[in-house]
Amino acid sequence: MKNIKYVGTRNKSITATASEAILKGICDDGGLFIPEEFPVLDKSLEELSTLSYQDLAYEVLKLFLTDFTEEELRYCINSAYDSKFDTPEIAPLVKKADVGILELFHGRTIAFKDMALSILPYLMKTAAKKNGMDKEIVILTATSGDTGKAALEGFANVEGIRIMVFFPEDGVSPVQKLQMTTQEGANTAVIGIKGNFDDAQTAVKTIFTDKELAKDLEEKGFVFSSANSINIGRLVPQVVYYFKAYIEMVKLGEVKMGEEINVTVPTGNFGNILAGYFAKKMGLPVKTFICASNENKVLYDFFNTGVYDKNRSFAVTTSPSMDILISSNLERLLCMKSDQSATKTLMESLNKEGKYTLDLTKGDIKGEYATEAETAAAIKEMYEKAGYVLDTHTAVAYASYEKYKAKTGDNTPAVIVSTASPYKFTKDVLVSIDKKYEDKDFFSLMGELEKISGVEIPAPIKGIENRPILHNTVIEKDSIKDFVKEHLTK
Ligand SMILES: *Cc1c(COP(=O)(O)O)cnc(C)c1O
User: Fold this and answer.
1) Number of domains in the chain
2) Beta carbon of 201 within 6 Å of any ligand 1 atom
3) pLDDT grade, residue 447 (50/70/90)?
4) Which atom of ligand 1 is closest in space to residue 267's alpha carbon?
5) Which residue in 79, 129, 303, 317 is a FRET match for 267, CA 20 to 30 A apart?
6) pLDDT tens across 230-264, in order?
7) Is the pLDDT assigned to residue 442 strictly greater than 80?
8) How far is the CA of 5 from the centre of ligand 1 (A)?
9) pLDDT at residue 259, rounded to an integer
10) Who contacts 411 (Cβ-Cβ below 8 Å, separation ≥6)?
11) Ligand 1 centroid to 419 CA: how many Å?
12) DSSP SS3 for 145
């Protein structure tokens, strides 16, 4: 098997092994790690189609994380993908109306972030041991709602690691907020900030590249790392379920082995869809990826015009995990499509002017978007057609896919990546189906959703409104660094 080296997106002489890249999270110059070259599968899709999720994960992970032993990888995989998920399939695919829906919300926080964040702590601990790390690792995480909780669940009570999560105080759903503020674990800190997700993400990224702060904390015995999708240890586990989706489409008879599918991904930070793109690079037969945005349609504009421009007003939508104007992982695609020096220039331009130009309008990733009204209509349409309730993010993807299909006439068998359970956004989902739910309170509506969908309230959020609030700190967006400094003492 070929040894895979990781290089920086802004400077290719910054290199790391997989375990080093996982520990560091981000390059010292602010760039991200990407594989220097892409591995190709050493098994056929037919061979992969007989494997369990865990064995499939091993076949994919071993190709990317080449300095981990088989024993280490299998330990990480088996610890992550176990009965924490409410189905042994881990990521089931169901056929509803005209599409296959890949359900990535069967983990502990009922959103797709569990797919990667249930394994990242194990990968990180293993990487720390491998590299003789003697410092306490501090995970800093900015969240638009789902990453925070999934990271807290993954890292709570993990020895040798502390975790701090920053979320926009007014930018997450009631369930998302409660999920985070009721988090247990002495090594956890959850902090609301007065600002939006981009403010939190920018502040956290600045801390990662602050050499003075890093030195200061190193003396105190701490080292930073990231659980955001800028960490390659988040991306690689996400590649696995694209293979699973394809295999299930074949099993359902939607495509013959080897024929192409289209995949639509509800996108924010561009991590999920990029993992799918990695799968394609490895040989998965995907014709087109449809990158679906909500009204914060920076990516739609980019893929249609070649101009990425974040200078616009930020919309708070019913799909908050996609309310993002700076999609960090796009940097990796830019580098794959150009090179390090071009990427460095583009990122400098993004920093200074808030925009840059690179023409990817003719590539195999197409941009679409859905307005709030189109998103609500998609939820209603799917419910009426198939009795199936989409969450708001998945509905953005479904609406975007239908628009893409109508525009292009492309009828390639399609997978919609479903990133959250509708229970995470109960009220918006129900009101989309019937206005009569408008005046009801959020938590009483869970029972209503159970009735109309026939899907039980997921155990992790049952009774969440009665759990004690353990975190109630709210700070200004400019004080994130000071907060971090003050709180890291032994
Ligand atoms: C994080 C998230 C997204 C966006 O995924 P990215 O990898 O950031 O593009 C979409 N939907 C849900 C529910 C999420 O939690």
Assistant:
1) 1
2) no
3) very high
4) 9
5) 79
6) 899 999 999 999 999 999 999 999 999 999 999 99
7) no
8) 27
9) 98
10) 405
11) 7
12) coil
Question: pLDDT for 40-81, tens place per residue?
Answer: 999 999 999 999 999 999 999 999 999 999 999 999 999 999
| Domain assignment of residue 249, yes or no | yes
220: number of CA atoms within 13 Å, CB side?
17
Is 424 near ligand 1, meaning CB less than 6 Å away?
A: no
Cα–ligand 1 centroid distance for 47 (angstroms): 30
Q: Is the CB of 272 under 6 A from ligand 1?
A: yes
Burial of 256 (0-12, 13-18, 19+ CB in 10 A): exposed
What local confidence, expressed as pLDDT, does residue 311 receive? 96
CATH number of the domain encompassing residue 247: 3.40.50.1100
Query: Does the pLDDT value for residue 158 go beyond 90?
Result: no
Range of the domain at 241: 93-110+233-455
- For residue 159, the model assigns a pLDDT of 86
- 420 CB within 6 A, ligand 1: yes
Look at residue 240 and tell me if it is in a domain.
Answer: yes
pLDDT at site 490: 67
- Measured by CA distance, the residue closest to atom 2 of ligand 1 is 321
**C-alpha–C-alpha distance, residues 457 and 446, integer Å:** 7
Q: Which residues are known catalytic residues?
A: 113
Closest C-alpha to ligand 1, atom 1: 321
Q: Is 251 exposed, middle or buried (0-12, 13-18, 19+ CB in 10 A)?
A: exposed
**Residue at 81 is within a domain:** no
Cα–Cα distance, 350 to 356 (Å, whole number): 6
Distance 418 CA to ligand 1 centre (A): 10
364-374 pLDDT, tens per residue?
999 999 999 99
Phi-psi region of 454 (alpha: psi -120 to 50; beta: other; left: phi over 0): left
CA of 112 to the centre of ligand 1 (A): 7
Residue 444's pLDDT band (boundaries 50, 70, 90)?
confident
With a 6 Å cutoff on the Cβ, whether 393 touches ligand 1 is yes
SS3 content of the chain, % helix, strand, coil (to 5): 45, 15, 40
Residue given tokens 């080093």 in the structure block: 20
Q: Whose CA is nearest to atom 15 of ligand 1?
A: 146
Instruction: For residue range 455-467, list pLDDT tens digits in order.
Output: 999 998 888 889 9
Q: Which residues contact 371 (CB under 8 A, 6 or more apart)?
A: 295
* Domain contains 178: no
